[in-house]
Amino acid sequence: MYKQFRQISLKSLLAFLFLVLPFSMVMASGGNTTVDLTSTTYGIIAVIIFIIAYSLVIGEEFLHMRKSKPVLVAAGIIWVLVGMAYNSIGEPHAAGIAVKHNIEEYAELLLFLLAAMTYINALEERNVFDALRAWLVSRGYSLKMVFWITGLLAFVISPIADNLTTALLMAAVAMAVGAGNTKFIVLACINIVVAANAGGAFSPFGDITTLMVWQKGIVQFDQFLVLFIPSLVNWLIPAAIMSFSVPKGNPEPIESEVIVKHGGYIMIGLFLLTILMAVSFHNFLHLPPVLGMMTGLGVLKLFAYYLKIKEAGTPDAESIENADMKDTILQIEGQPRKDYDIFHILARAEWDTLMFFYGVILCVGGLGTLGYLAMISEMMYIGEGVMGTGITGANIIVGVLSAIVDNIPVMFAVLTMNPDMSLGQWLLVTLTAGVGGSMLSIGSAAGVALMGQARGTYTFFAHMKWSWAIALGYAASIWVHMLINADLMDTAINSAKTMH
To answer: What is the model's pTM?
Structure first.
């Protein structure tokens, strides 16, 4: 029911980008760059190229051109300009060294996400998510109970899966139970978006931003857990406020039964084992967590070989040629069946999104290498910061900005800038970047996806009517973090910060 909406992950409906683009771009500079090339012709052209590329990203809905295409081209052009700029000042090798660092950053993110997406797609193919949805809609709960159950499950599941998949799953439940009740569906969708984003904020696996912070080595796996209570507050306050407006009613249970295919439950265990390996590799062996994820992907592939033999009924299925990635149809008990092939599932990864990450990371890295960091870094994080608010104010503004601009380039910009902050402040910016996008429907992948899934019902303005309640939760979560984690606000981060 929701499969077709997975491809709009991280859809960049950034209508206000031009208002904040100069701010976000100059944040995204390389912290190690000492040469200021921002006022050169190369620097100015690079900014223009980036603006044009992101304008095309914004217009994806109308142009029907995938968002990865313009940023991929822009990344190449920007780095050509970076190379020319550094050649002009007699440093011909500086650009090459810088771009290799950015590619390394992207490679870790790419492989990590590829393994995670493959697991999610494999579980989806085994009907694991459909079975959970069917079980929920057949219970006959009241609308208010469904409101709280879907929100709670979104908060609990998103730290393990991702906020997008979780939001789509829970929204499908809410729409099935509350079919025809527009008010309920709107409130349930808003609640699910807030819960999924909040749940992803205290886990490295819940959101791309937390994953980047963890892989960078700035915050350790167990240290994210101190954000649990602030994240919970971020969801509970707007949920409690909205619950008073949930319509009364106890709809009839929907008879729906879905059988989990053979191996589905084992795949859940393998996914949890893979996560455990990623954490253990990182914490105990000081290896990149992506190594654990890729090892887990290998285990999944071995299990897929077993499924291939089990379902196809022939040990020779592995040797069947499928160079053009077409399904092999086998006859089993007189019925046609598609040969199970894990590479088909891997190919279903959201490649547009993965390529978009490449373009964004390389574009942002290129602008950073040209020296846009120094000016804004000093304005935001040195001295009194933005408008005299200091580091705390700057990190709060990052969260507000992520509601307008996609939080991926914003967080990557902060990480690249690498300001000198305490552990508590790094946790604060992780929290704000993760949950700040909930204030607008376009501020997170979950919100954008649900606008597509509940098209015409859950809209930008329907969400905006409750932005004040979500903002209260946002402010309260920051206050709670600074209260219960006050001892961390002045605690220096460990040496892992500079591991990469």
So the answer is: 0.71
